[in-house]
Amino acid sequence: MLVSDIANLARAELYGARTEAVPRLADSKTLGLPIDRDPKDLCKAGWGIVFHTEEKQAVRDALEPLIDHRRSQVGDENLVKVLDYKSGEGRAQWLARFRVAAGTVDPTKVPYYLLFVGSPSQVPFTFSFLLDVEYAVGHLAFDSAEEYAAYSDNLVAYETKKRAIKNTREVLFFATRHPLDGATHLSADKLVLPLGDGVPSNVSAPQSTPSKYGFRSRKIWGNDATKSSLIAAIRGAHGGPPAILFSATHGVGGWPAGTPLQELNQGALLCQDWPGVGQIAPAHYFSAEDIPQDARIQGVIAFLFACYSVGTPQHDRYFHRYGSPAPEIAKSPFYARLPQRLLTQNNGGALACVGHVERAWGYSIVSEGAGPQLQPFENALGSIMQGVPLGHAIQDFNQKFAVLSADLTALLEDMGYGAKVSEMDLATRWIERNDAEGYLIFGDPAVRLRLEDLA
Question: 187-226, pLDDT tens digit by residue?
Fold first, then answer.
């Protein structure tokens, strides 16, 4: 695309609704909760599950054990809610139905931790992105009630300690680095190496992010980041499954819309087996079908930094012409199969996955003119390693989206009053904002590690 084409798409937002309510939230430090409500404390911040009004009763029944568990955990029925969502509702409209407005989080009406159940055709990605600015939001969507039941049973068993865990106090970093591929060079060198090994400083020995919180760090990096090495790692080949899996790879995409292969493999992790040029084959990527039956991933929190790693929208978010419909990249939006399968393993699934909807860009790592900016990643990992619930642990990403949205809104308003802004600057800010928008939790946002049981 030409820079002018992207700039025209950004200008269109001056008259659209994409920046709804975000500017006023950008500087919120308390996330709207009352001062006596600690967002890290589920018993203070509350938990809610939200079903689409047309959700099947079998799905509701399958998640009843999780709802009962949260009720017993929180202890206050006023802070555990079963809510509904109606097709077509926007963020403001949905909150208003429960007598809540922007800037205020009243957990007795709408709890801070919210688990939405249903496909993105039922609960749109765009709704979730805006709600996530103030709330800790997670999502569940499976094909069958049995899969919902499997996730519910696995999570309750983990949190009530009905099953022993063998997770190690370790963060496993998996990062590819393909020849002549600037994207994976950026993520491997500027993201994974600083996180896993520490960044150079004025101290003699750089400290990795895990070591700051008493965790070990292990890397499968560059040429070692093969499909077989990833499979061996989740089988516990190194003494046990890690507590956190952090991957930085390409996410495979590009299948024709509506084909079975698209829904099965979109967002699969492209491994180092791919030589960097030529056709991509199944032997080159790790998909849901590649998770072995003996995988040991119970109690793992996964962060999958890759395109489409958690979901695919129906329409292309980037590559289209102003005034023309956005190209269709899927017959309907869907969640990726890989995180679905990770959460529903028969012998104990992962707790949750953090990933990206649509393309993941390098702006998450390096900001234009400011260089590497890893604090959202460092804070997210550090919070998870301190036992903070996942939904609150990743709030830096949501706040970054809010700030960039406010910045873009102000820029567009200035342009409306005649200010001169270069098309390159406008296009860059628009893509950077859209990239920050795409992070999403697949799973219950209230999950946290059992720190006391990690080996």
Answer: 999 999 999 998 654 445 578 999 999 999 999 999 999 9
Sign of dihedral through CA atoms 327, 123, 435, 264?
Answer: negative
Q: What is the pLDDT of residue 22?
A: 47
Q: What is the pTM of this model?
A: 0.91
Say if residue 124's pLDDT is above 90: yes
CATH code of the domain in which 111 resides = 3.40.50
Residues 247 and 358 in one domain: yes
H or E stretch including 210? Answer: none
Residues 187 and 142 in one domain: no
Reported as a single tens digit per residue, the pLDDT across 227-263 is 999 999 998 887 788 999 999 999 999 889 999 999 9
| Cα dihedral sign, 47-339-363-376 | positive
Cα angle: 441, vertex 432, 417; to 5 degrees: 125
Per residue in 418-427, is it b (16+ CB within 10 Å) or e — as a string? Answer: eeeeebeebb
pLDDT for residue 307 is more than 90 = yes
Q: Where are the beta strands (DSSP E) in 249-361?
A: 250-251, 269-270, 285-286, 301-305, 311-312, 334-335, 352-356
Q: Give the distance, in angstroms, between the CA of residue 227 and the centroid of all CA atoms in the same chain.
A: 22
Please choose, from the candidates 117, 128, 136, 116, the residue with its C-alpha nearest in 3D space to the C-alpha of residue 45: 136
* Residue 401 structural domain: 168-453
Mean pLDDT of the chain: 90
